[in-house]
């Protein structure tokens, strides 16, 4: 490369920045050339060019008819490591985090917005407690308390023999068995802390561009920032995704990580100290006093955890570089110290202490279920109040998408907890005879496992209705297909049926709110039925349904067994899939698709959720667009497909106005309105997308009727600007065999938009609408730009 880039000639340099979608893509496939070179970035995410285009800025005359293509590959942010397959187990945390971003838009109601965020964070906290409590149930209650006290169980599983109460070993004392078993949930909480801390250092540490010319202020109703003071002087109103601190949640994630880690440790400590104080209650002495002191310490730290979670939300108004290191360090450390003291206290010798029955877990799981239900109902009330002033008819579930998804997160947590506990109990209880003492989890978990088949059965009804509707729609669309291709004179029934079926299947995406609403409502009702059933039954291990009517008890027992096996099969499937992902790149990409959609948003509610890749990708794109336009003065079109269009829009929102005026946005197969606009109306609703169009020089959107993901963005023409949506693209491009297409053209649906001739025409039209090049401020090579981007980012 030459040491300097000359000033652009007439028309100036033009760059097309390509951003791929879900599932990932290679730079070779994006640039249609096997010889690609990394311009800037690293192995995780980078910009690539063809080898022949490295000196494009030095020879703009070569690119008078086309822009210079440059590909941004970000797939390794979500699917580059096989270990990420195990993130499937964190699915409830991810779903709870999504609920935070699904609130309705609000203006002038900051109190309700803040209350909405607090409620979601409390729901997320209950999920951490629930997961830890389930681990305590398996390790402490089922294994160390019940199985170790049953001769048949310890004889069947020799690896538990050293815990057997009949052998009289050092570990046979109930308190010591519990203290040893507490290592399992403690290690689980420690693992979650480690994963969160490692990803926090890699993802949340990516700083977005700084140096805005004017102070920034946003409507107070759309932020939870504590620093809500009005700035003095001229201000620039920016949408939510354009705020300087939106993609930098380092402080909040560190704060929540400390609180959730402490909550996990305190849950284990509470399980230990509750068991010991229950035994010590009848014999006052030093151990009893110490036990109540430890319970008080657990209660005080629990109040501190609640205060930390509720006290502060996201700070988006400015780039908050602070990290409360004292809080982040001492709160988990203090909780771990209390846990260590409870373990020592539990292991103290207590003559005559024997384990019988179950540990007091029913009250804990019942309280968690009630608290989660109350929080979700409260979240629904707040959501209804937020969207009362004006309601967009296309918003999913009439603004109740957030509460519905929060209910699904709780359901996933409850199903996983109940199913795993019941499966382990069935496994440990397999060796017991009919007259032996049965090993079983708390009654509520057995009832929760029993509702799994019922819930799956309920899902068959809407699934069957949607399948029937799809068949009818395919028949109805046959006439429209023939009209679109002018094939009424020579119709091909097979070809028409294929295209019509493709369009009908693509429309199923718009029915997702109905399915989510049905599942969420059924989950709420079945959860209430589980609590009622547990209260009506006695806490007898292995006989959870004895208190119910004989017919109901028989049916519940069958469904509980089915649910237990389904959960066991599901976890086996997760492990198998994760094992395959270590060896198979295609499996990693498949799993990555799940996280491409689910982890776009920052971790605002749950710090143990999979990390937000957009906190790396959006600053990458923003830095690149800013540095390239500043150094060359050229025109730039950012071209995003599928999820890449969402990243592209988010990056354009972050640009300074002067830079944004030199950038065109081309989206295709885009879920901006169809998915994000409906489910996240406060951030991608109609007003937000119209505002984005007003602040840009030009924007065009391409979509197909056969695309199940992409669709129109529904931004109309206004103020002399044309409508963003282009005419719907025909898919396939030809109905039958023609001279231009001698072989049958495939139905592309969501893929290969660039193969359509309309793509090149739309891109050229956008470049022609951009203003001519400006003199650049200084000369630098592409390699210099890459080094500058790496040092700044």
From TrEMBL:
Record key words, sorted: Membrane, Transmembrane, Transmembrane helix
Superkingdom of origin organism: Bacteria
SUPFAM superfamilies per the UniProt record, alphabetical: alpha/beta-Hydrolases
Signal peptide: none
Chain segments carrying region Disordered: 773-793
Transmembrane segments: 85-103, 115-135, 178-195, 258-277, 289-309, 330-348, 363-385, 405-425, 445-468, 512-535, 555-578
Coiled-coil spans in chain: none
Full protein name: Integral membrane protein
Species: Streptomyces nymphaeiformis
